[in-house]
Amino acid sequence: MNWEVRVPNRVKRCIKRFPWQDQWQIISVLREFEIDPWQGDIAKINKKENTWRMRVGSYRVFYSIQNQAKVVEVKEIERRSSSTY
């Protein structure tokens, strides 16, 4: 069950600005999405349709899942703060 993970260029540039330890942690999570996007510490975002978030240390990965096409589309990666949600 392989999933396609789509990461826009603006998100890739954002990842490059993080400390290298955090970059590797986030990249490993994105690779795990290829196997199963439903695993880990995830939660549905109530205010947005078909938007999920995964906690990765002090960062939050926001993404959507298209079950029919088996596609995970990463929308944003943000450092956790009081205004993240």
SSE layout and pairing:
Elements: E1 4-6, H1 9-16, H2 20-33, E2 42-44, E3 52-56, E4 59-66, E5 71-79
Parallel strand pairs: 1-5
Antiparallel strand pairs: 2-3, 3-4, 4-5
Tell me what you see in this structure.
- With 85 residues, the chain is an alpha+beta fold.
- It has a single domain, classed as YaeB-like fold (2-Layer Sandwich).
- It is 26% helix and 33% strand.
- It is built from 2 helices and 5 strands; from the N terminus they run βααββββ.
- A 5-stranded mixed β-sheet has the order 1-5-4-3-2.
- Strand 2 and strand 3 form a beta hairpin.
- The chain starts with a strand and ends in a 6-residue tail after the last strand.
Q: What sequence of helices (H) and strands (E) makes up the elements?
A: EHHEEEE
How many separate structural domains?
Answer: 1
Question: Largest sheet, if any?
Answer: 5 strands, mixed
Number of strands: 5
How many helix segments?
2
Strand order of the largest sheet: 1-5-4-3-2
CATH class: Alpha Beta
CATH homology-level superfamily: RelE-like
Overall structural class, as computed from helix and strand content, comes to alpha+beta
Mean pLDDT: 91
Using the 3D structure, state the CATH architecture.
2-Layer Sandwich
Return the CATH topology: YaeB-like fold
- The end-to-end distance, rounded to whole angstroms, is 31 Å
Radius of gyration: 12 Å
Uncertain spans: none
Task: Output the keywords.
five-stranded mixed sheet, 5 strands, 85 residues, 33% strand, 26% helix, alpha+beta, YaeB-like fold, single chain
